[in-house]
Amino acid sequence: MAIKTKDLNARLFGKADKRRATNVTEAQTAARDKAAVIELAVAGEDTVAFELVKIAAGEVENKTRVFAENAREQAFLNEHALADILSTLKDRGQQYPAVGRWLDDGDIEVLDGSRRRMSCILANKDFLVYVAKGINGEHAKFLSDVANAHKPLSLYERGKEMQLLLTSGKVTDQKELAKYCQCSEALVSGALKAASLPMELLMAYPSVGELGRPTIVKLHRLYFGLDNEQQQRLVSKITDGETAMWKQIDAQGITRITREVTMQLEQMSDALQPKVEVEKPKAQELIKGKASFTRDGDKLQLRLKKLTERQADDILAYLADYLK
């Protein structure tokens, strides 16, 4: 079930502020009020104190980084993918702080809030994040996974997680994978197809999260219908230049831009595949000026001229009797 950001913060922060919040409402209030310190029982275990840190707008990209095991693909985060929070952040600033941990080099690793982080970078806004020391890798993964619950992952991102489950041996096939992930086998198939595509192809689109199974299936067929050399040439065409492909589309709205990008990719794919000229079978003369025929596999076409009515009737009667 999707979790709203405010509910997510309440779920993460079981105890908050010096007020020692004991219910969801108090935890939500503490996060909204941006309390200086929040105590968090990570994964129901040891309580850790998180301090609120403000990173200046111009330093967010250099002083913070995203947890390497975060399932969300950071390369896909652009103004279209972040449209649901970017406009509010530009007008009102960041409403709920992110969650992170201190690294040995003094930088901050963001565990929950990679979308808020990138939105602050794009909008040139200060970044608020609750930071703690002593969070191990297992607990960091827990925080990152819980945080991703409120905004569904793209098919590509889900496919990457599914691939990991298959390669690790946790599941043996797609049917078992569907049960493990509590989803349909059709979704599993679509997600794995998405994960097999090169990122360059997906980044041609304004928002990878908006790509549904029909588009993914079409792209999969388009890309893997090419040989290795053609695939490389297609990727080179997509990445040629500094401007992303979707930004070159003269259209408004994610749906229209997505459709236009797909059409352009299909045209590029067609251009890479040499057209095979199929030689049409030629007519052969049987009786000069009167009868010719064309053979095409199991098909035979006769062309007869200058027939009398009786000849035509006799030939038709013969064929009807012969082909019974």
The whole-angstrom Rg is: 31 Å
**How would a textbook summarize the main sheet?**
6 strands, mixed
Question: What portion of residues is helical?
Answer: 40-55%
Order of adjacent strands in the largest pleated sheet: 1-2-6-4-5-3
Number of helices: 14
- What pattern of helices and strands is seen along the backbone? HHEEHEHEEHEHHHHHHHHEEEH
Low-pLDDT sequence parts:
1-8, 13-24
Strand percent estimate: 15-25%
Structural class: alpha+beta
Note the overall shape: elongated
> What's the end-to-end separation, in Å?
65 Å
Mean pLDDT: 81
Number of strands: 9
Can you describe this structure?
With 324 residues, this protein is α+β, with helices and mostly antiparallel strands. The longest helix has 19 residues, at 254-272. The protein is built from 14 helices and 9 strands. Helix 11 packs parallel to helix 13 (254-272). It has a 6-stranded mixed beta sheet. Strands 7-8-9 form a 3-stranded antiparallel beta sheet, with no helix packed on it.
Write the layout of secondary structure elements.
Blueprint: H1 5-12, H2 24-32, E1 37-41, E2 47-55, H3 60-63, E3 64-66, H4 83-92, E4 98-102, E5 108-112, H5 114-123, E6 127-132, H6 137-147, H7 155-168, H8 174-181, H9 185-196, H10 199-202, H11 213-224, H12 228-239, H13 254-272, E7 284-287, E8 291-296, E9 299-304, H14 309-322
Parallel strand pairs: 3-5, 4-6
Antiparallel strand pairs: 1-2, 2-6, 4-5, 7-8, 8-9
